[in-house]
What we know:
Elements: H1 8-21, H2 30-48, H3 53-57, H4 61-84, H5 89-103, H6 106-109
Helix pairs in contact: 1-4, 2-4
Amino acid sequence: MPSKTPDLKDIARRLQDFARKRHWEKFHSPKNLAMALSVEAAELLEVFQWLSEEQSKRLSPEALAAVSEEAADVLLYLIQLSDKLDIDLIAAANKKLVVNAQKYPVSKARGTSKKYTKL
């Protein structure tokens, strides 16, 4: 029987357990988690800092491993923050996709990077 792929709730529970075993819950306020998320996002950006557009599309195995690790850190902190604030990330993402489709209709946004207020 194939094993079930963990969903965001499974990962949130594992993160709760991880923190609880280390007595870290007191450090995991929404403010601290948001700050940690920002730090991890900056570490993700650091991998790309001095690369050209083309180089960023052809990462070395070492750089790709670093991106994978930092992206996972970003995701884990985002899951923790969302869990703390009782935000359903999947529902929020789906809602945001609808909002973005309204802000950026294909007829106006196709082929341009302009902000929706400038379309």
